[in-house]
């Protein structure tokens, strides 16, 4: 009987982890194919992104209200000086990352998007070194070379290569490096009280919306105002279908961020990172099977080289976390009293907190 109890507990943890990984896959892979599908008929990716931001803000606000009612504790609301000085840079970088990523689907395939976007970890490493969140080591140089070499190989002589789309998604990856570095620094500031991702999303979305609006006004505003699908609509049914499709994307975007948080809170950020690698492979296989994307042997070799660099970086982070005899928590990230969202309110281990915000970028669109 005593031997059976640990086995049951282990099986339960394994089943729960697998369920959370599958939930994360559904949202992450789903929103990638959704964006590509929608941009084939709806050529306004910036407007689509802005509507998604509005939906995420709505669901974040509702989640905060539900948690506040159940816990009887007021949620954090930043002052305007802190909001503009601390949150605005992160919000702007996040808006550009997501907006450019969605924009690129007008020009490139899901395969090329997935391969190129996986290079985001390269820019995260670079900006982590610039902001002194990482120390320069020979192993990190090797990681950078592997990822950069892989990026060159899986775009070299690609039959479906498009310079505009590639530039957009590569720009998104570059800005994503800034985005996640700033996000990590933002979440480390305990005095802001934004350790809970729901609170973070709630504060980020309005500034993201405003940051993306000028780009939308210049490139899509006039065309959208004269489009028969939106402002000059003549078929109410068509308008409702378009808005319904856009609202569905917002639900997927919110679910992606929330599923990442659930996976990390119940397992570790290392699990999320490893799951992210397999997710990229699954996305490529589905793109080749469902959409007929052509991937050459050289492209696959380049992608494998890029993934080997990412895997090496994950392994180094894991060894570094376990090699410290007395690990020091990041400033401001001790126990998190706000993990009461649906599953549990237990304290994350210090080394998981150190990796959580850094690796969450692996699952982003």
TrEMBL record:
Q: Which InterPro entries match?
A: Sugar_P_trans_dom (IPR004853), TPT_transporter (IPR050186)
Compartment annotation: Membrane
Q: Which UniProt keywords apply?
A: Membrane, Transmembrane, Transmembrane helix
* UniProt topology in membrane: Multi-pass membrane protein
Coarse class of the protein's main subcellular location = membrane
Q: Which GO terms describe its cellular component?
A: cis-Golgi network; endoplasmic reticulum-Golgi intermediate compartment; membrane; nucleoplasm
**Acidic residues: bias regions:** 348-358
Q: Where are the transmembrane segments?
A: 12-34, 46-67, 112-131, 138-156, 162-182, 202-219, 239-258, 297-316
Matches recorded under CDD domains:
TPT_S35C2
Map out region (Disordered) in residue numbers.
346-365
A biological process term (GO) from this entry? negative regulation of gene expression
| Domain (Sugar phosphate transporter) ranges | 19-312
Q: Does the keyword Membrane apply?
A: yes
What's the protein here called? Solute carrier family 35 member C2
Source organism of the structure? Capra hircus (Goat)
> Organism classification, top ranks?
Eukaryota, Metazoa, Chordata, Craniata, Vertebrata
Gene (UniProt) = SLC35C2
């Amino acid at each position: 009987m005593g031997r059976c109890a640990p086995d049951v507990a282990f099986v339960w943890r394994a089943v729960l982890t697998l369920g959370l990984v599958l939930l994360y896959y559904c949202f992450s892979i789903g929103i990638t194919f959704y964006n590509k599908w929608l941009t084939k008929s709806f050529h306004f990716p910036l407007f689509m992104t802005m509507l998604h931001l509005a939906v995420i803000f709505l669901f974040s606000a509702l989640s905060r209200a539900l948690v506040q009612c159940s816990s009887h504790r007021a949620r954090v609301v930043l002052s305007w000086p802190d909001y503009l000085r601390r949150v605005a840079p992160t919000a702007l970088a996040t808006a550009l990352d997501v907006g450019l990523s969605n924009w690129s689907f007008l020009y490139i395939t899901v395969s090329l998007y997935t391969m190129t976007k996986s290079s985001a970890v390269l820019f995260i490493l670079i900006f982590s070194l610039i902001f002194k969140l990482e120390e320069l080591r020979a192993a990190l140089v090797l990681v950078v070379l592997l990822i950069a070499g892989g990026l060159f190989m899986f775009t070299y002589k690609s039959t479906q290569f498009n310079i505009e789309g590639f530039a957009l998604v590569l720009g998104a990856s570059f800005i994503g490096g800034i985005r996640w570095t700033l996000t990590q620094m933002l979440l480390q500031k305990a005095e802001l009280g934004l350790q809970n991702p729901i609170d973070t999303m709630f504060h980020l979305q309005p500034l993201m919306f405003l940051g993306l609006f000028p780009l939308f006004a210049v490139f899509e505003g006039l065309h959208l105002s004269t489009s028969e699908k939106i402002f000059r609509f003549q078929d109410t049914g068509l308008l409702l279908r378009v808005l319904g499709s856009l609202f569905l994307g917002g639900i997927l975007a919110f679910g992606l961020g929330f599923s990442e948080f659930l996976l990390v809170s119940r397992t570790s950020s290392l699990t999320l990172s490893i799951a992210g690698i397999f997710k990229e492979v699954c996305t490529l296989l589905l793109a080749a099977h469902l959409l007929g994307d052509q991937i050459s042997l050289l492209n696959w070799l380049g992608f494998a080289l890029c993934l080997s660099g990412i895997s090496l970086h994950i392994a180094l982070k894991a060894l570094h976390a376990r090699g410290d005899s007395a690990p020091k928590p990041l400033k401001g990230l001790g126990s998190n009293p706000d993990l009461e969202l649906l599953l549990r309110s237990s304290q994350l281990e210090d080394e998981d907190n150190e990796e959580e915000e850094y690796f969450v970028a692996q699952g982003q669109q």
